[in-house]
Amino acid sequence: MSLSSPDQAPSAERTEWFTEKVHAHESSLRSYLHGSFPTVRDIDDVVQESFLRVWKARAAHPIDSAKAFLFIVARRLALDIIRRDGRSVIDSSGDLASMHVYEDRPVASEILGQNEKVQLLVQAIDSLPPRCREIVILRKIKLIPQREVAMRLGISEKAVENMLSRGLMRCRRFLIRRGLNSLY
Q1: Where does the chain have alpha helices with state H?
Q2: Residue by residue, what is the 3-state secondary structure of 151-171?
Q3: Which of 127, 130, 124 is closest to 171 using CA atoms?
Q4: Across all residues in the chain, what is the average pLDDT?
Q5: How far is residue 184's CA from residue 31's CA, in Å, rounded to a whole number?
Q6: d(CA 173, CA 16)
Q7: Contacts of 64 (CB under 8 A, 6+ apart)
Q8: What single DSSP character describes residue 93?
Q9: How far does CA 20 lie from the centroid of its chain?
Q10: What is the per-residue pLDDT across 135-155, written as a single tens digit (0 to 9) for each?
């Protein structure tokens, strides 16, 4: 009996894909959810349900950008929870006047901080070599799939992957040198 049956190959490939393309973004997904949806009580459930839905979707059809798809799924789940919890809070409260109002707008200091972070990120991207900058913009800002970027630029997918990795590392170092450890 062979250990690598034909049935196991696709599963191993899907597992590898999931580990590299989806699960690798767990910490940034958690940060995003905590920052964008502070009223969601159980971020762990949203993350796990997002992973499950991405896994099931990938089984049904190919996914061009796993990270983008993962974040969209998580965002929708978080919004569903907020909508559901929002109705239950109002329904269970008899006196609406006694409820605390949460204003969903950032305060001025948060806006200023976010604008400064965006400006630093723009400077970091601008400091990259031209080809590297182009790849970072196409992949991370315009969310164009790696294969399409490679075709547009007439280079291999591996070259796109390597330059993207180097570009992101340079951006990270640029931001750290300026005292910014996280964009969130």
Answers
A1: 8-17, 26-36, 43-60, 66-92, 108-126, 130-136, 146-153, 157-177
A2: HHHCCCHHHHHHHHHHHHHHH
A3: 124
A4: 80
A5: 7
A6: 29
A7: 145
A8: -
A9: 14
A10: 999 999 899 999 999 999 999
